[in-house]
Amino acid sequence: MTIREQIELCEREALSQYASAAANTRGRERHSPLCENRTEYQRDRDRIIHCKAFRRLMNKTQVFLCPEDDHYRTRLTHTLEVCQIARTVARALRLNEDLTEAIALGHDLGHTPFGHAGEEVLAEICEHGFIHSRQSVRVVETLENGGKGLNLTWEVRNGIRCHSYGDEAETLEGRLVRYADKIAYMNHDIDDAVRASILKDEDIPKRFRDELGASKSDRITTFVNALIDNSGSDISLGGYLALYEELKSFLFKEVYINPAAKKEEHKAKEVVRRLYGYFLDRPDALPEEYQKIARDEDIPRAVCDYISGMSDRFCIAVFEELFVPRSWDG
Predict the structure, then answer these.
(1) Which of 130, 116, 140 is nearest to 54 (CA)?
(2) Residue 330 confidence (pLDDT)
(3) What is the domain partition of the chain in residue ranges?
(4) Can you say how many angstroms the Cα of residue 171 is from the centroid of all Cα atoms in its chain?
């Protein structure tokens, strides 16, 4: 038996009846010979980690725009925290950790520069609309690897597509990542807001501190335990879902729409808006790979793909190159 076959045998013996065994994958859009050492979901995880879009996450905003302090979360550190939470729960529930990890690592590959501010602008001005979960799927199906995509399995792509809202993923691993994403961003956004002096720990209502815990670690542990205790044939937070929704409402009021946290957001939106208009009028100024998309599909699609793939700092650099005058050097 190959190492892959041995792993698949271990999955059949050890995983829950509700788990997604790698040997039972619906497969890929294009045939790819099996690997002797890795299951199909392990290969997907590796393809995601090695792709360009994954590397760009390190310079994309989570909540606070272009933070100078190294300790604020970026889209990459958020992704890693989602992955850690999801894997912990997957192991406890005897779900497929490799599938869970691949979905978690790929879930935000299509996110815009400047976080949800960039997403809101593209959703408003692009005729195709914009939803980052769908763009993440477009990244792995079309944009990566010179237009060939990563050719991931159906289960990973389904989990990425359904990680945010709308339809639930077909697999429990995909549904788990959806909850892990919520748990991660809620708790690290509180942590970052305290670091930014927008919140104090004592500002968090006593009820949440009493029932969920006073620290980030305590709150994550509470939610992780709730998932483990309330999940079986489906993924559920049980009675803690109501507490999650209440805490989320508190965060929206105190952090996500807080003027101190959003004071630079209008500038970020204007950068995205100006760049979109510029390239829409001048598609020949796009890099060649996006000019090809403009020819094969349409110009708005190509411009949206180009801008949404930018990191924060590259987006600012392109804006400065196009719109900010340089000093005369003789």
Answers:
(1) 140
(2) 60
(3) 265-319
(4) 18
C-alpha to C-alpha distances, 32 to 27, 150, 153, nearest whole angstrom? 9, 11, 10
pLDDT at residue 253, as a whole number: 87
pLDDT in tens, 36-51: 999 999 999 999 999 9
The predicted pLDDT at position 66 comes to: 60
DSSP annotation of 102 reads H
Does residue 159 contact residue 147 with C-beta atoms inside 8 Å?
no
DSSP readout, 248-314? HHHHIIIIIT-TTTSTTHHHHHHHHHHHHHHHHH-GGGS-HHHHHHHHHT-HHHHHHHHHHT--HHH
Q: To which H or E segment does residue 84 belong?
A: helix 75-93
Bridge partners of 153, per DSSP, are: 28
Q: Sign of dihedral through CA atoms 297, 311, 80, 256?
A: negative
Q: How far is CA 296 from the centre of its chain?
A: 27
Question: CA 47 → CA 55, 170, 297, 326, distances in Å?
Answer: 12, 22, 26, 40
CA dihedral 158, 159, 160, 161 (to 10 degrees): 50
CB distance 151 to 43 below 8 Å? no
Confidence (pLDDT) at 73? 83
Q: What is the maximum alpha-carbon separation in the chain?
A: 74
pTM listed for this prediction: 0.95
